[in-house]
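in:
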């Protein structure tokens, strides 16, 4: 018998897009903690404009925790329950701007506002009026001043260099921390000078996790690298390089973490296959394409670069459509406890529930056992590709239209292993396998893979 190494502490996160707090709490307890997911990224919690589209969340009206995702009490209860389950909570901090509505209005929870006037919070002088473009909107991403001082799609742009604006933002973030939040996604961080983000987050308790959303853009002067001195960044290049091979079958092999041009260091990188924006935009592979989506997520979870964040959203036809709501506009509760995916047959509004897919849970188990040893050089065989995490796990995928055999050299012990993609986290059961079985013989792991199939075995999945 062989010794199975101790499972590493979980590091993977998940974005639960537009999921109400009561349901997030439920997921922390029933699906995320059991799957070994370390943190959950929420949709924005603050009061927002009253509108049906999901992106209403990204137009703050006040910093009350009262949104269609839930009340302050529900938020507080959720954070406490997630923390108790061992799942840290990362809040989405929309601090670059307020609303984009030119007309005055009343927010979801009743706060009156106008485009540059948010009573008891911000007044006209707290906003940039960049004067660099006809409408004060950003027109040219190649111009740093426009990107940071003009308005992103007409959203009233806060003067984040102002000490009073900073103090208001810091008070809001500290309020979330007082409820147990562990860190923040800084929404639209590219549009806030890195020095301003740093000035704000340096006023938060030590250890607060900061993840800046800075979309790397070709030829743009503002890069994610400016934001790594005080936290992590979402590295958009990762998905852009990970997924095209899934469609063209030509894999290039980044053997070493540091051998990835145009990407921040591995420690600073949050990586993902898609997120709520790219699912509706640039992503090559999304949950609408279940087989390739499993392959992409499996490769990411088997990889040695960055901290992965999974994405759990809902099916849609209209890219603007919000999650289903009740008559009061509250997003309906949803549970992934009994979901088995992947499936391409979701009705609009139904949750993808990736955290419950056996393949994803199997790969989280793979990562816990094999994720801390070196990634070995990849092997190509037609449209199949695979690699070893040295001595602990092997993954192989077939992105072509034909059955493919692939043989991956490994220092894992010879023997029979249960596949965690088809078998899930507990792939080895009662001397047999819950899913498929593969073998290692004379130091070669062999896989016969159907078109669109993936396979992964590790020391803990020995039959
Ligand atoms: C909505 C309407 C607009 C309207 C506006 C104001 O769609 O027509 O003018 O409201 O009334 C989300 C939605 C937006 C929505 C907004 C506010 O995606 O459609 O606008 O909420 O409700 C850039 C930013 C990046 C940003 C993306 C979307 O750099 O930070 O655009 N991503 C975050 C969130 C979004 C959110 C916001 C920011 C705003 O993740 O969900 O917007 O809070 C190149 C550049 C990128 C650029 C990208 C797209 O790749 O390199 O920097 O990203 O193009 O323009
Ligand atoms: Ca700005």
């Amino acid at each position: 018998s062989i010794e199975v190494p101790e499972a590493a502490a979980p590091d993977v996160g998940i974005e639960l897009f537009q999921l109400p707090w009561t349901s997030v709490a439920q997921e922390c307890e029933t699906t995320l903690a059991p799957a070994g997911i370390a943190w959950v990224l929420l949709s924005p919690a603050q009061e927002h404009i009253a509108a049906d589209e999901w992106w209403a969340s990204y137009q703050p009206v006040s910093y009350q925790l009262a949104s269609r995702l839930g009340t302050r009490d529900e938020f507080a209860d959720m954070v406490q329950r997630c923390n108790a389950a061992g799942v840290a909570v990362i809040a989405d901090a929309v601090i670059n701007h307020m609303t984009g509505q030119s007309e005055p209005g009343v927010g979801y929870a009743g706060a009156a506002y106008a485009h540059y006037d948010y009573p008891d919070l911000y007044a006209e002088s707290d906003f940039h009026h960049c004067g660099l473009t006809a409408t004060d909107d950003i027109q040219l991403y190649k111009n740093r001043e426009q990107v940071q001082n003009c308005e992103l799609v007409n959203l009233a742009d806060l003067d984040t260099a102002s000490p009073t604006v900073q103090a208001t933002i810091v008070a809001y973030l500290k309020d979330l921390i007082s409820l147990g939040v562990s860190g923040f996604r800084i929404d639209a961080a590219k549009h806030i000078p890195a020095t301003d983000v740093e000035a704000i987050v340096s006023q938060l308790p030590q250890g607060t996790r900061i993840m800046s959303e800075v979309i790397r853009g070709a030829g743009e002067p503002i890069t994610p690298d400016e934001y790594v001195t005080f936290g992590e960044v979402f590295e958009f290049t990762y998905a852009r390089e990970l997924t095209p091979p899934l469609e063209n079958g030509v894999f290039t092999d980044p053997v070493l973490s540091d051998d990835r041009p145009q990407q921040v260091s591995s420690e600073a990188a949050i990586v993902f296959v898609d997120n709520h924006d790219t699912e509706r935009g640039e992503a090559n592979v999304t949950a609408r394409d279940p087989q390739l989506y499993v392959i992409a997520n499996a490769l990411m979870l088997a990889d040695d670069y960055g901290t992965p964040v999974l994405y759990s959203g809902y099916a849609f036809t209209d890219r603007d459509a919000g999650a289903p709501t009740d008559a009061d506009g509250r997003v309906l509760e949803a549970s992934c406890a009994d979901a088995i995916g992947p499936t391409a047959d979701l009705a609009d509004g139904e949750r993808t529930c990736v955290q419950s897919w056996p393949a994803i849970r199997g790969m989280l188990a793979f990562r816990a056992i094999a994720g801390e040893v070196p990634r070995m050089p990849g092997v190509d065989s037609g449209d199949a590709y695979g690699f070893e995490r040295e001595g602990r796990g092997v993954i192989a995928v077939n992105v072509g239209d034909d059955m493919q055999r692939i043989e991956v050299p490994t220092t894992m012990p010879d023997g029979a292993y249960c596949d965690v993609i088809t078998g899930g986290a507990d792939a080895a059961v009662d001397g047999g396998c819950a899913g498929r079985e593969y073998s290692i013989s004379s130091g070669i792991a062999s896989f016969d893979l159907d078109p669109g199939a993936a396979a992964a075995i590790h020391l803990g999945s020995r039959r």
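note: Residues 163-178 form the longest helix (16 residues).
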